[in-house]
Amino acid sequence: MNIHYLTHPKIDKPQWDALITASEQGQVYALSWYLDMVSPGWDAVVELDAAGKYKTLMPVPWRKKLGMPYVKQPLFCQQLGVYTLAESIPAVTYQQFWAEVQQRFKYVVGYQFNTDNQLTQEMAQEQTYTLYLHLNKAYEELRHHYTRDRKINLKRAEKAGLRLQQSQDIEPLIQFFKSETADRIYGGVSEEAYNLLRKLYVAMQERGLAQLYYTVDAEGRKNAGCLFTVWRNRIVYLFNAAPAHGRKQNGRTLLLDHIIRKYAHQNFILDFESPDDREPDIVHFYRGFGAQTMLIPVLKYNRLPQSIKLIRELRTRLVQRLRG
């Protein structure tokens, strides 16, 4: 196998994007412009074909702290992994690609592959998941598979007279999240994360990939917001938030139902970007639309010196104590 580790300046981005677009596993997360935003300076492992062209790719999002490089899954990028033009990905490809990462990094906080990647049990130490809803059925059939709770809450939203409003202003959505959700997230949310979301939204808008919706109540107040990105056959539920009165009026249920209705009977997958079991209420909400679990392999390791491991552990304990 003709495998190479490429530092960022050596990556042929037009060739990269052509492969991601053509690959069976292709996702918006893996496009070069998206990676440039969520992980500036990212590297890659590539396999070349006999003609020296890209055949198989794996982005490597890395950062540096205290002078030490490490790999970490970027924000707004739930899946990465291996993408190929080949019909299948042999186990040896995953092993050799990951070996290239292990040679260069002593610490991988967590690297999430994509749902089409089938790692061997020996490789995949952990797994998380997302939830997919295949929309290639009539809307009536899709709605039939909503849970009783979801059907009831959808009717409540409709009776509340909520209006859907497509928008190009992401600020209300960010403010909803800041005021209602951010405080519940371990470690908090930095202003840098919000600025990244703003930049991503502009970049997706420019490429015609963003769909931002709000629900508006009878008093004219925005009461829920959802940002979707649509690329190829995948709709990613990238970001959402609602104030307290919006949650009571089930605005997000109405917005998700709108997307399902809009793309029903087409070859689209709605990816809820589900959190793991630490957020059971959110997972239960998404499953209520009939979504199915899709596993995401996760690789991580820590080969840092023991002294640095101890410093990290003490810092984690301090943060937990400060947050009560």
TrEMBL record:
<keyword id="KW-0012">Acyltransferase</keyword>
<dbReference type="Pfam" id="PF13480">
    <property type="entry name" value="Acetyltransf_6"/>
</dbReference>
<keyword id="KW-0808">Transferase</keyword>
<dbReference type="InterPro" id="IPR038740">
    <property type="entry name" value="BioF2-like_GNAT_dom"/>
</dbReference>
<dbReference type="InterPro" id="IPR016181">
    <property type="entry name" value="Acyl_CoA_acyltransferase"/>
</dbReference>
<feature type="domain" description="BioF2-like acetyltransferase">
    <location>
        <begin position="153"/>
        <end position="268"/>
    </location>
</feature>
<dbReference type="InterPro" id="IPR050644">
    <property type="entry name" value="PG_Glycine_Bridge_Synth"/>
</dbReference>
<dbReference type="GO" id="GO:0016746">
    <property type="term" value="F:acyltransferase activity"/>
</dbReference>
<protein>
    <submittedName>
        <fullName>GNAT family N-acetyltransferase</fullName>
        <ecNumber>2.3.1.-</ecNumber>
    </submittedName>
</protein>
